[in-house]
């Protein structure tokens, strides 16, 4: 049953090339402004994640929509619009040697998180089903690729 986080997709999914440009512009706006017009896009609240590149050692920032699980924890989806490969931000985040925790900026705040990666098993499946009741397009993304699309919970581990 959909929740108050329900969003009906009223847009065309951008291409992978478009995603890169859109994300760069979105991150720049998120760093400059704390207004709803920036932080709430297509009816979804967003976070900005900061990771360190597992190969480059460089700082990377990504803007992502989030959904709250039944416990109220923010969840982001490593869908990359159904691309066959995991998005780079997820690969960086998953490397705990380089990213034992990540910085998460939210509208009017920030925190550090030790992400909880759900990439298989009953808990992934449970949260996936609940998420897709509110955001059905993720099911379509899953049909486009052979990988299981990971979910990442972002508990507020410590204040920023």
Short description:
This protein is α+β, with helices and mostly antiparallel strands and 160 residues long.
Number of E-state strands: 10
First-last Cα distance: 35 Å
The total number of structural domains is 1
Main sheet makeup: 6 strands, antiparallel
Rounded mean pLDDT is 95
User: Which percent band covers the strand fraction?
Assistant: 25-35%
Low-confidence stretches: none
- Derived from helix and strand composition plus strand pairing, the structural class reads alpha+beta
CATH topology, anyone? Pnp Oxidase, Chain A
CATH architecture: Roll
CATH class: Mainly Beta
Fraction of residues in helices? Answer: 25-40%
Q: What is the global morphology? A: globular
CATH superfamily (homologous) name: Electron Transport, Fmn-binding Protein, Chain A
Count of helical regions? 5
Structural features, described:
The chain has 160 residues and is an alpha+beta fold. It has one domain: Roll (Pnp Oxidase, Chain A), CATH 2.30.110.10. The strands form two sheets. Strands 1, 2, 3, 6, 7 and 10 form a six-stranded antiparallel β-sheet that branches. It has a four-stranded antiparallel β-sheet with strand order 4-5-9-8. A hairpin with a 6-residue loop joins strand 2 and strand 3. It is globular, with a radius of gyration of 15 Å.
